[in-house]
Amino acid sequence: MPRYVGRASPLPTGPTFEVWDARRAEIAPGAGVMRALPTARRRTIGPWCFVDAFAAPADKRELLVNAHPHCGIQTVTWLTRGTMVHHDSIGSRHEVGPGTVGVMTSGHGIAHAEVSQGPSEPVEGLQMWVALPEAHRHMTPRYDPVGAPAAVTLPGATARVVIGTLSGTSSRAPSFHPMVGAELFLGPGAEAVIPLDPSFEHALYAWNATLQAEGHLLKPHQTAYLGNGREVLHLRGGPDGSRVFLFGGAPLGEAVLMWWNFVVRTHEELEQAVADWQARRRFGEVEGVDVERLDSPHLQTTPREPVAGG
Question: Is residue 189 part of a domain?
């Protein structure tokens, strides 16, 4: 059941090291994810408000996310295996394959669906949301087939910059707030020094990896919140090497309200978004693909704890 988040994360006050385990959630029938963000304490990290690691159901290797709405965010899809086809209500159709990125900017409202391309290989990757700042959250929706991300070699590691900027290398993906989202690769036992923007708050998601970060052990599906004020991050790869995701940005400084697939600022905006979706206004229709149109769950009037989504 969707839940409601309506307060800001505490602003960072310098370097720290907070660790939490991702929790299991479901984005479609039989399709489980490991949710790294949000948590009870951290709703946003920079502009990031949602980070899921997903895989197709083990029994059928297919993933289907039926047509649903979004507003106020960018969705960032980063695949490591398999192929997903993105369809949306502005007419976009794009195959996101292994090692490629697709970014949908919902602006004032869009609908989309995602369908895995055949059962031959399971789909694995990250599905993430970036909250659009006030100046851009009502913009015209768009979709950007970014393709392969920019690569950068760092001391002891290689990185692929999915969105934003890392160590002077910027992604081709559009962004509307200072930020970073990058996959890091470390060889077995490799020691890496990752340059950071000290004005950003950062987090590190260990995904399927074991590694050491600033001398602390991180296990698979754990997230480390690093705070801000760091100029470098020291990492050591696990015995089999490590693939981790670094994300963050300048503190958003805005309290966002997230419920189901909507990211707004007030309960009145949320009520209007639900009404518009149910009345087939504003978000458009996903055409050209055989998917169902999801109904919005019943909107609770009493705030509840963190989001579900898709």
Answer: yes
Residue 32 placed within a domain: yes
Give the model confidence (pLDDT) of 170-215 as tens digits. Answer: 999 999 999 999 999 999 999 999 999 999 999 999 988 899 999 9
Characterize the bridge pairing of strands 262-264 and 257-259: antiparallel
Q: How far apart are CA 74 and CA 68, in angstroms?
A: 14
Whether 191 maps to a domain, the answer reads yes
Q: What is the pLDDT of residues 282-308, one digit of tens each?
A: 999 999 998 999 999 988 654 343 333
CATH for 57: 2.60.120.10
Total tally of structural domains belonging to the chain? 1
Among 82, 80, 75, residue whose Cα is nearest residue 115: 82
Q: Is residue 28 part of a domain?
A: yes
What does the radius of gyration of the chain's CA atoms come to, in whole angstroms?
18
Neighbours of 103 (CB within 10 A): 25
